[in-house]
Design brief:
By secondary structure, the chain is mostly beta strands. The protein has 18 helices and 73 strands. Helix 1 crosses helix 9.
Length: 1085
Amino acid sequence: MKSLHFFLTSSIILLMFGACSKPTNTLFRSYASAESGIDFSNTLTPTDSLNIIEYLYYYNGGGVAVGDINNDGKPDIYLSSNQQSNKLFLNTGHLNFKNITASSGTSTLPHTTGAKWNTGVSMADVNGDGWLDIYVCQVGDYKSIKGRNLLYINNHDLTFTERAADFGLDIQSFSTQAAWLDYDRDGDLDMYLLCHSVHSTDMYKDTSVRRVVDPLRGDRLMRNDDGIFHNVSEAAGILSSPIGYGLGVAVSDFNNDAWPDILIGNDFHENDYLYINDQHGGFRQSQNASFRHTSTFSMGCDIADINRDGRMDLISLDMKPDDEIVLKNSVGADPYDIYQYKVSFGYHYQYPRNTFQLNQYIDQAGTPFFSEVGQQLGISRTDWSWSPLLADFDNNGLTDIFIANGIAHRPNDLDYLKYYSSIQKLDTAHADALINRMPDGRAKNFFFSQSAGLQFDDVSAAWNPEGKDLSTAAAYADFDNDGDLDIIINRIDQPATLLVNQSTGNHYLKVQLFDTSRNKYDIGARITVYAAGQVYARDIYPTRGFQSSSDYTVHIGLGTADHIDSLLIRWPEGTYSLKENVPIDSLLKFTRPKSRSMAKSDMTLTALLTPIYNGLDFIHRENSYNDFEREKLLLYKLSSQGPGIAVGDINGDGREDLWIGGARDQSGITYLQSATGQMLPLQQHDLEAHAGFEDISGRWIDVDADRDLDLVVISGGYQIDNPNILLDRVYFNDGHGNLTYDAAAMPAVSHMSSCIAPNDMDGDGDVDLFIGGRVAPYYGYNTDSYLLINDGKGHFSIDPDPIFKGLGMVTDAVWSSVDNSPRKDLVVCGEWMPITLLSHDGSRWSKRTIPNTEGLWQSISSVDLDGDGDEDLVAGNIGHNHDLRATAAHPARMYVADFDQNTTPEAVISYYVQNQDYSFFSKDELAGEMVILKKKYTDYHSFAQSRLDQVFVDLEKNPINKSVSQLASTIFENNGKGQYTAHPLPFSAQSTMIFSILPTDVNGDNLTDLMLGGNIYEVTPSFGRMDGGYGTVLINKGKMQFEELPTDQSGFFVPGAIRDIQTITISGKKAYLVTRNGDRVMVFE
């Protein structure tokens, strides 16, 4: 705990990148300073009073700004140095740059008294004269550092005059970076100043500290009033507190209302902020509503529309290592109790990894909703990462990712923190000695290339094969005007690097906008290009990445598109201009016309489904049992699997009614449908008497052949403190919907059930039941399932066939005509098991599996999807949006044994990474369950280097040894003979764990579509919440091709943990019921 506390109260966060000469056959070529003339290095000189121990952001590095300062069409470069002078480089053409710092008057040395610490830099036309000015952020009034922010006004002759005080911008604060925007759309530029904090005793309180205004550490919104900037933060709803550890800032229009919104990335425990413009001079905070979770140690950020859907997405960087040994030796996610403690204090859900927020839906209130898919994209682990840049670097029409990396010394190294916590007094150890105990943190820079279907590949070696380095700020521009984007990188203790793009073959378009108002560069405009059936949208906001500002020229890669259909400009105040006959492979310049259209060109879409309210007011209230106290090595809780829902006409009036299951200490409930379609609760005393049960699923079935529907309910949950509450139940219907419990109807078997699959198994005219067994007695054990044979009167007995004994950790089952025979087969899925087929030939059972399907399956459905007369399967899995890696060649494994000989078994999970099989869990997580490991590994480094078979010997001899090779939710196409071909479902179906699958014709084209739902929030923090879904509609396009229907077209928007989706007829219309764990039931029609 002391180590963690130190890292959160006395640490640093910095990153840097390197460059070296490279072969010319790569996409980028590094230009050395001798070639480019960019003779700049951000050299640090630590002292006893100023170093990583004394200033936690000592290694954050300088900044870089790019822009055309002399309007000659060539982007120039301004680089900031933390301790030395900043430098301005004039682009003289042909990738040659001239140092004009002295002659231009932009050296920071004459304008700084005492010690200085420059941070972020930006270029903006602050005074609205059509020439770019330069704004420099500095740290002020911290120890010996007494800086103030500087503003260099462009004199139009390659000279500048420092005039920050004249504009009210000579701010003394812990400034990180400035972002320029016209937030009130009055035609001039305003400024958001991002600031950072330093650790002190007042940092770790509940979130009420956010309301405290701190003039040094708090962010500021500076409104431009006729050329003088005033702090309007409080009036505008901007937080200016001491806990804003601001490292990332970016501006964009996230909700497509033509008003600028602001994203803030905060380090450490404070939330990131998403400020949505209220269009009345202020902002509302939307981060908790818009983001399911965020990064913990948020660094730089950037914004782009990566999937070309017209909504802006975003990336936020953190510092999760890609190297497994470094990962296991570094501070990771909080332990569960500390994690929950922070949440109870009002902090949002956060995980220490890069996050990518995919903008999925904008509601009528203008709130954007994002799915975090960084792990699914494969970009969540890039080490100590500073500056992300989202741009199309290879001009193939798809947005790529660049990430600048590295830190000189890792202050989050666990062995270092252990050593530090053992020191009685800090004075006993000299700073140099402490710093030298921190491991080197140099890291490679990353390039990720996007291909179709949001597939990102690590092409770092192919595009720029450099070694490990220290890179911080980065910006892009087409420095040689050849139609592709180059990158300038500011590095620590090494020369800045110019990466020159050598892309060829694809088409592009470059656009510059000019204005006659005071916002000459049209900050806030959006350019949308329509070409070859694709849409490319770009917002003009130069501040992006980390402490950096990129070029104003909009660059759009077009791939092989040989013409542009049209170009739409949305000007900063929300008016539009449409351009046609636009040439490709060119730079186009547009001046804002005096007459512009206010009408949008986009057509308003009518969604297929609409949420309705018909009196269904049930709210599921999950109890707060902590499964991790029972088994610390679970990935997620097993006690949050409900509620299920059952639909049927229970009173014989011809209208469909329903039952919804309750949580522990909450009874299930029945509703009768009225003639007007309203749902009216019907009191059921026997259901209320069983409120102590955890209802997992239920079915309306006429079990006693009296022509009314009875209710079968199965019980589950992992809170096994009373075996009687795990009994499955039958409630008999009196024909009017009144239910009576019969304890004798079901065998008195106490177990954690998962599913009901009804079928007349023995052909005697009544309904028999398969009941799946979830877990017993510990996770990982093969659990018994049961086939219950109906005696015709609704009383069931267990089929003694041993095939159901130890069937596995079953989660769902369905009866399906596997080989088109009259007798249906039982298809079973579960966790750490393959999809299993149980067949009965009239005399005996047999079992087989679909090859290579060992998965973490949660749901399964049987339906003829391709109209060929046989039944295919749709199976919901855990998906790809997590860090558990598994393939057929390198499966994830689980070993279950009493490793520490304390009579309680442990389930240990491994995954294959860097050609070795490593524990998925950290040393502290394993030792929390097995204390013996603390004695075996007295330091973290030795554990980090150990394979799983070195941590636990003789693993392969373990009697319980399971694997997972398939993670994707999948369609299994039946060839009519019971042989299946796998078709993974589209991207959105892999963003979370799928708990419910409903085959149905959503759009009325007589093809069976798929409605999917999932999410699970109760997870161990190192695994992270699986919350990427809002409900998914997949439209059947024929031939096993399914297409994701965007939420604004489907209307199916369900935030929360979906557990069941069912159809119901309401007033003669088809509707859909959706249950959510711990939330209200939703209805769509």
